[in-house]
């Protein structure tokens, strides 16, 4: 398996999500991975409501 895999500490763009993360252009750091590798938690570099916020996203979103 040579597919790109995320790991803790990776920087990635946070996908725009109408409900949870509507802002464009934010990047974040991977702080958690699910056991199957399909879900990652990303901590946004920007503050949301004055706080660092973590978002769960799919590690390899379908194109
Ligand atoms: Zn953000």
Please give a structural write-up:
- The chain has strands at 11-13, 27-33, 39-48, 51-58.
- With 63 residues, the protein is mainly β.
- It has a four-stranded antiparallel β-sheet, with no helix packed on it.
- It is globular.
- It starts with 10 loop residues before the first strand and ends in a 5-residue tail after the last strand.
- The mean pLDDT is 87.
- The structure holds zinc ion.
- Zinc ion binds next to strand 3.
Give the DSSP E fraction (strand runs of 2 or more residues): 35-45%
- Which ions, cofactors or small ligands are bound in this entry? zinc ion
Q: Calculate Rg over CA atoms.
A: 12 Å
Shape: globular
How many helices in DSSP terms? 0
Helix content: under 10%
Summarize model confidence as the mean pLDDT.
87
Low-confidence runs: none
Helix-strand makeup class = mainly beta
The number of domains:
1
* Main beta-sheet annotation: 4 strands, antiparallel
Order of helices and strands: EEEE
CA-CA gap between termini: 19 Å
Strand order, main sheet: write it out.
1-2-3-4
Give the tally of β-strands: 4
Secondary structure elements and their pairing?
Blueprint: E1 11-13, E2 27-33, E3 39-48, E4 51-58
Antiparallel strand pairs: 1-2, 2-3, 3-4
The structure holds zinc ion.
Question: TL;DR?
Answer:
The protein has 63 residues and is an all-beta fold. The protein is built from no helices and 4 strands. The chain has one domain.
